[in-house]
Amino acid sequence: MKKTAIQKISDLAAQLMQKGTLIAPVQEDAGFNFREVSDARQVDLNFYNTLMSPKSAFFPQMEDFVRYQTGKSVLEAVPVEMGLKPVFLFGVRPCDVKSFEIMDIHFSGTGAVDPYWQKRRENTVIFGYAFDVNTPADGADFYSTLGIGAADPEGSDVFMMKKSDDLLLKAVTDKGEKLLADMSGLTDATPDDLKYFDETVAAGRSFKTRFTCVEAKSIAKKFEDLFHKTPFWERISDACLSCGVCTFVCPTCYCFDICDETLFGQGTRRRVWDACMFTDFTLEASGHNPRTKVYQRLRQKVCHKYSYHVRKYGVISCVGCGRCTRNCPVNIDIFSIVDQAMKE
Amino acid sequence: MSSDNPYIPMPVEISKIIDEVDTHDIKTFRFTFLNKADEEKFKYMPGQFAELSIYGKGESPIGIASSPTQAGYVEFTVQRAGAIVPGLVTAALHDMDEGGKIGLRGPLGNSWPIEFLEKKNIVVVGGGFAFTTLRSLINYMLHPDNRSRFGEITVIYGARTPGLLLYKDELAAWEKRDDIKTIITVDKGNETWKGREGFVPAVCKDVAPSPANTVAVICGPPVMIKFTLPVFFDLGFSKENILTSLEMRMKCGIGKCGRCNVGYKYVCSDGPVFSLAELEELPRDF
Q1: Edge-to-edge strands of the sheet including A62-69?
Q2: At the N or C end, where does chain A have fewer CB atoms within 10 A?
Q3: Number of structural domains found in chain A
Q4: CATH code of the region B10-108
């Protein structure tokens, strides 16, 4: 294990920027977000969590597939090369790290492999970052409900935590080990640091966010049974605006559209984030649309995460990061939907 | 990364266009591959589909209408969409001529379960425009290499009018064969129509295929499906032995984009072919 003074974090950032692209939490007007860092001094670990999830590091809001020209043959269309430099994704909270594993099952672990997700994943070193276990969690968070600790190192390549004025960095994978060995300016951790690290990981496991007892298979079955109880869904979706913000900030929402954008004869086929909350999401060319009502779409989102995904992939597609709840303009809270469902 | 990238279409050329119906809004397009390697890679089975891709317009998921026994090309029967929702891709395709080039992504989805169908009698029931992948299946089973693998084959196919029947030459050829029983019906005939009149469910009831060692493969408009299924239940067909092909709006076709999600299935990659028993496991959300 290594460590560095928190004050010297920009030295660490500068080294990573020399090796490739550094994506780290950066303070913006609206709050913190993961951004490609252009100045090492921008890196700031004094944040709770980012507004947007870090999924865009692997699944950007727009991913260009092909460039084409109108009026030209399909043979002249050119696939867009990704041209990736090594990426360092720095300061990811444990619940968000967990989301990558859930998305891996879908994008590269089952069925067809999504080449964009897979290449970006392979190309990235993840620096996880523990929540402060001595400060209460944000009221929206409920990751302990999903069995995720506040300081779980699993899934990160390097796991980081603060210890007073120091930042401890522990290699979790070979990739992380190799990188840390290659960095200068880090000092070796002391036995006391090692003890602190282990104690914090343990404290993180018993750290309580909002909590309700959820077991994947039983909640999946519960929602299957609830599917036809329209009054339940109408009640919980009563205020929903179908704005889709919950899906855009969500680290495990992956629905996308593929569209062609042409301007002055130059075009790009790309994928863009889409959302099951929008009414035309399932509108067919025949005019048929199975989900015209708001309650049907909110039901799709909740059941997809807590029921369909469990039955298909064996895991709940939610990490309890609380973003959907924090950002919902009408205070719809998926935790309370799950809680209510368990009591139905 | 294009060669193994499932989002990048392969180039194909329209080698033949057949105007199928008297309303001229359904055409069969025959495509040949511009790269030999793509043709070899495009190994499909009846019941699968592909994305027809036109840059600047978009992509449409369409069932494959030809049979894999027809080497060297692949066919799709496409309706010009747009009565309610603008059909950019199908309209652009309908406006193209032979020699036109488009993109193709596939083959996609599962297929009619050929191994399951082997050694069984097959009743194929089709209505209107939803006959395309059924045609693929019939031509596959009728191929000399395959015919002995299946029992009796019965085809019940209906359209609203005689002019709306697809694949008229093939239907006539099947009617002349003695290794397939072909029953064609129209809702309403015309002065030259000498065949049967009547709705598909009523004709099924009339023909009354035996459920013994028999699988029914049924595709058609929702109203036809709704009234045909009870006929087959009454005849004694089990839900495992009734197959259909589901439609849902699709984009990626490979189970990634989430659009065609119904319950724990993605229609594009887990389907589009499902047995009635499988469909009853899913929420009514399609």
Answers
A1: A78-79, A62-69, A266-273, A256-263
A2: C
A3: 2
A4: 2.40.30.10
Last residue of a domain, one of A147, A180, A206: A206
Output the pLDDT for position B285. 86
- What is the per-residue pLDDT across B5-56, written as a single tens digit (0 to 9) for each? 999 999 999 999 999 999 999 999 999 999 999 999 999 999 999 999 999 9
Q: What is the DSSP string of B72-85?
A: T-EEEEEE---SSS
Same domain, A145 and A241: no
Interchain contact, B102 vs A74, CB within 8 Å: yes
A260 assigned to some structural domain: yes
> So what's the pLDDT on residue B3?
59
- CA–CA separation, A106 and A77 (whole Å): 29
Does the B114-245 domain belong in CATH 3.40.50.80? yes
Question: Which residues from A are below 8 Å from B81, CB to CB?
Answer: 285-286
Angle at A6 between CA A5 and CA A12, to 5 degrees: 85
How many helices (H) does chain A have, and how many strands (E)? 12, 12
Residues A63 and A195 in one domain: yes
Q: Does A278 touch chain B (CB under 8 A)?
A: no
**Is residue A271 over pLDDT 90?**
yes
Is B264's CB within 8 Å of A308's CB?
yes
Residue B144's alpha-carbon distances to B148, B150, B152, B175, in angstroms, are 8, 11, 14, 17
Phi, psi of B80 (to 5 degrees): -70, 110
Q: Which of residues 222-241 of A touch B (CB under 8 A)?
A: 224, 227-228
Cβ atoms B50, B61 nearer than 8 A: yes
Interchain contact, B269 vs A300, CB within 8 Å: no
**ipTM above 0.90 for this complex:** yes
Q: Which domain holds residue A226?
A: 216-343
Q: Does A55 touch chain B (CB under 8 A)?
A: no
What is the least distance, in Å, from the CA of B38 to any CA of chain A? 13
Interior angle at CA A146, CA A32 and CA A166, nearest 5 = 45
Q: Are residues A294 and A329 in the same domain?
A: yes
For the stretch A274-286, pLDDT in tens is 999 999 999 988 8
- Residue ending a domain, among A206, A235, A267, is A206
d(Cα B112, Cα B115) in Å, to the nearest integer?
A: 9
